[in-house]
């Protein structure tokens, strides 16, 4: 009850500018590359749009105001969060179940090796809008189980803008954007000292777009060094909220992407559209962790180092001997991942009639290819006094992995939009996907494999305009995703891998299919726009990462049978007079397992024989049932605008607690506030406070074993959220 009282109070306070949703926009995209779009009143799902405002970019609006969207932060660092929508997620980390498709200007951003998303490589300063397409939408291809996010970048500008902002924990941000009628360019840099120990990060983006005739060419360059030291035992955080368990935990990204888009109108009824792209991404990780290695128990191997019952060998093939003073109570895990993604899509958009009924047919085909080279190794190390690691120079032979993968996805898709009456529109879509994967183990043959998947996904929906200010929509669809190379290479429960640093043998996994039904209403009055939707998605052969190893982050991928996600979404935004703007949303989500199974859980405090039974009806971990948000802003005077944003999230179970046996993460409420001061001319002073009331909460939790590091049997690990911070900046317009 306190959560909703706080939300109600927020609406009476001043807040930063609420996000702008689709209610104020007439047209949304039908396909990832659709440049013509469709009137939202004719769209059969609860599509939401977020547009850029002067006050904040679309990424902030996506998290702070959109119904059904939630985030958790496994790493505890910037630009490394998992994004959830209707219980499906997309993450930058290998190991998260990827159930959302992400597009930038019609280009698929899910990387080929694990369908992950590198948020640090997306040019947020150049994003103009995001459409959230809910449900299993087959036109958007693989991974669109819970929906798709399609981002559109800016293609022109009539002014130059600059932002310089700094604040708590050494955070500094700078952005510069400029353009003309047919071009746009932006550069942005972020440096964050990190509020936790040993946690600095920085990221830089460059983006450029130019139009030549009816063609657009876009270039995105990005580089980031991100530190997120992740979850730590609750007992350690109780002593020091900024403490880390072990360190460092560093990820380096480099990305370059070139894409083109072309549109040509042929006569009055036919439009040809196409895209092509090439992207190169390099990712390097360096993780200082605890160690699975121990002195050998076998008297015949006295003085040697063992992993379980096997003597550890170095790269020369010699047993690793323990010298006096050697502890090897830590490891330095390194990985390198080079990915190349490329593809093209072509579609025809024809407007005509079927028996005098207006009809629009979109048909096309696409090809997406991917190459990946993954290497990893483990160096024996020792823990320092501050739980940092010092390497010994000894790399274990069993830890070496070198895996090369290739993937090809061929697709054909179609969407037919039939206007039965001026009020009734029926939309039918379908997509045929054929995916082939090749895995080539360059050290052994254990990871070798070749896999093929073919899936046909249809959907059917209708939108009915009840009145000029009220509409009804309903849709049923089937979507899917195939196992990725990283999942196929980490699927053996008898030999769990520690992502992203080690893989094992290659048992088969099944493709996932999701059946979604959605229905709702949307409407508007003179000052308020609103929407209400109910949805249900049932996933067959759902793929999850199961925590099944003795160390934190160790486990395997597995098909866990059927899961179900169903719920309600409510959203509204509007004005109160000429000075107050507000928005509010609420999402209820019941995400549960349908198929009972038994899962390995060696670190779970309530496990029986290192296993936990999962029963039908148990909730999916890290998925809250209730998420509510409210925004309001008031123009106090022509120069001063004041505001706040409140987000309330209910409890959620820890990763690895699929059986719902342990205490969940507590619910939390976090409030942000902002003051804008017009300085005269075209300058504005911005003062922003995040986590205004310094709430102590966590958005991510898991189970681990701290005994070897801290000497205590601590099992419950969480990633604490950032405390109160203040940022001050100046925005300039020329």
Polypeptide structure, described:
The protein has 734 residues and is mainly β. 4% of the residues lie in helices and 55% in strands. It is built from 5 helices and 44 strands. The strands form 8 sheets. The protein has a 22-stranded antiparallel β-barrel. Strand 23 (357-383) and strand 24 (389-395) form a beta hairpin. The chain is globular and about 85 Å long. It starts with a helix and ends with a strand. The relative contact order is 0.14. The model is unreliable at 1-25 and 500-506 (pLDDT under 50).
β-strand percent reads: over 45%
Morphology call: globular
* Strand runs, count: 44
How would you characterize the largest beta sheet?
Answer: 22 strands, antiparallel, barrel
> Structural class, from helix and strand content?
mainly beta
- Oligomer state equals single chain
Q: How far do the termini sit from each other?
A: 47 Å
Low-confidence segments, given as residue ranges, are: 1-25, 500-506
Could you tell me the mean pLDDT?
88
What share of the residues lie within helices? under 10%
Instruction: Please tell me how large the radius of gyration is.
Output: 26 Å
| Number of contiguous helices | 5
Topology of helices and strands:
Layout: H1 2-10, E1 27-28, E2 38-39, E3 48-51, H2 58-65, E4 69-72, E5 82-85, E6 88-90, E7 100-104, E8 107-108, E9 127-134, E10 147-153, E11 161-167, E12 171-179, E13 183-192, E14 201-212, E15 215-227, E16 232-233, H3 234-239, E17 249-266, E18 270-290, E19 294-295, E20 305-307, E21 310-311, E22 330-354, E23 357-383, E24 389-395, E25 401-419, E26 424-441, E27 449-467, E28 470-481, H4 485-488, E29 497-498, E30 512-524, E31 528-540, E32 543-547, E33 554-559, E34 563-576, E35 580-593, E36 597-600, E37 611-614, E38 626-635, E39 640-649, E40 668-680, E41 683-690, E42 698-703, H5 707-710, E43 716-720, E44 725-733
Parallel strand pairs: 7-10
Antiparallel strand pairs: 1-2, 3-9, 4-5, 5-6, 7-8, 9-10, 11-12, 11-44, 12-13, 13-14, 14-15, 15-17, 16-43, 17-18, 18-22, 19-20, 20-21, 22-23, 23-24, 23-25, 25-26, 26-27, 27-28, 28-30, 29-33, 30-31, 31-34, 32-33, 34-35, 35-38, 36-37, 38-39, 39-40, 40-41, 41-44, 42-43
């Amino acid at each position: 009850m306190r959560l909703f009282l706080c939300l109600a109070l927020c609406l009476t306070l001043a807040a930063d500018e609420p996000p702008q949703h689709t209610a104020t926009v007439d047209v949304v995209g039908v396909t990832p590359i659709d440049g013509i779009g469709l009137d939202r009143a004719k769209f059969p799902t609860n599509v939401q749009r977020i547009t850029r405002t002067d006050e904040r970019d679309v990424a902030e609006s996506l998290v702070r105001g959109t119904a059904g969207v939630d985030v958790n932060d496994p790493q505890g660092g910037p630009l490394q969060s998992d994004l959830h929508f209707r219980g499906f997620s997309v993450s930058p980390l290998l190991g998260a179940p990827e159930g959302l498709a992400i597009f930038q200007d019609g280009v698929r951003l899910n990387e080929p090796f694990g369908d992950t998303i590198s948020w640090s490589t997306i040019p947020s300063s150049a994003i103009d809008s995001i459409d959230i397409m809910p449900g299993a939408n087959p036109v958007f291809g693989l991974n669109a189980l819970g929906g798709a996010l399609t981002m559109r970048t800016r293609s022109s500008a009539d002014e130059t803008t600059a932002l310089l902002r700094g604040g708590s924990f050494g955070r500094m941000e700078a952005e510069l954007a400029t353009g003309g009628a047919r071009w746009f360019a932006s550069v942005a840099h972020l440096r964050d000292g990190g509020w936790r120990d040993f946690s600095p990060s920085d990221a830089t983006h460059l983006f450029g777009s130019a139009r030549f005739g009816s063609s657009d060419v876009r270039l995105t360059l990005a580089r980031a060094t991100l530190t997120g030291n992740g979850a730590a035992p609750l007992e350690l955080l109780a002593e020091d909220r900024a403490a880390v368990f072990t360190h460092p935990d560093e990820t380096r990204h480099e990305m370059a992407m070139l894409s083109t888009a072309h549109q040509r109108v042929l006569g009055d009824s036919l439009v040809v559209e196409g895209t092509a792209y090439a992207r190169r991404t390099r990712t390097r990780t360096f993780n200082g962790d605890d160690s699975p290695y121990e002195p050998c128990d076998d008297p015949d191997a006295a003085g040697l180092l063992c992993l379980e019952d096997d003597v550890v060998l170095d790269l020369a093939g010699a047993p690793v001997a323990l010298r006096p003073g050697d502890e090897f109570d830590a490891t330095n895990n390194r990985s390198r991942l080079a990915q190349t993604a490329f593809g093209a899509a072509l579609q025809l958009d024809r407007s005509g009639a079927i028996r005098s009924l207006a009809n629009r047919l979109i048909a096309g085909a696409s090809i997406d290819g991917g190459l990946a080279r993954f290497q990893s190794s483990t160096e024996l190390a020792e823990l320092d006094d501050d739980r940092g690691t010092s390497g010994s120079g000894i790399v274990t032979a069993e830890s070496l992995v070198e895996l090369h993968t290739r993937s090809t996805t061929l697709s054909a898709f179609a969407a037919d939009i039939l206007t039965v009456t001026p009020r009734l529109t029926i939309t039918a879509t379908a997509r045929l996907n054929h995916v082939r994967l090749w895995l080539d183990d360059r050290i052994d043959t254990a990871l070798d494999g070749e896999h093929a998947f073919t899936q046909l996904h249809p959907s059917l929906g209708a939108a009915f305009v009840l009145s000029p200010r009220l509409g009804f929509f309903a849709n049923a669809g089937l979507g899917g995703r195939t196992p990725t190379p990283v999942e196929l290479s980490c699927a053996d429960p008898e030999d769990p891998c520690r992502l992203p640093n080690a893989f094992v043998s290659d048992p088969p996994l099944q493709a996932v299919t999701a059946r979604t039904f959605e229905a709702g209403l949307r409407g508007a009055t003179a000052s308020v726009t609103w929407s209400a939707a109910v949805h249900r998605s049932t996933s067959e052969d759902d793929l999850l990462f199961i925590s099944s190893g003795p160390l934190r982050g160790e486990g395997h991928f597995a098909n866990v049978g059927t899961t179900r996600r169903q719920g309600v979404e409510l959203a509204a935004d509007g004005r109160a007079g000429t000075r107050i703007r507000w928005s509010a949303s609420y999402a209820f989500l019941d995400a549960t397992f349908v198929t009972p199974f038994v899962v390995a859980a060696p670190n779970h405090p309530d496990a029986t024989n290192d296993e936990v039974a999962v029963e039908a009806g148990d909730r999916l971990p890290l998925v809250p049932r209730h998420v509510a948000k409210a925004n309001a802003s008031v123009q106090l005077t022509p120069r001063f605008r004041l505001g706040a944003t409140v987000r309330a999230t209910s409890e959620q179970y820890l990763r690895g607690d699929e059986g719902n046996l342990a205490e969940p993460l507590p619910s939390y409420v976090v409030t942000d506030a902002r003051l804008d001061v017009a300085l005269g001319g075209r300058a504005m002073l911005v003062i922003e406070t995040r986590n205004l009331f310094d709430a102590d909460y966590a958005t991510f939790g898991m189970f681990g074993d701290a005994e070897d590091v801290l000497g205590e049997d601590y099992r419950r690990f969480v990633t604490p959220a950032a405390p109160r911070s203040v940022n001050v900046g100046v925005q300039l317009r020329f």
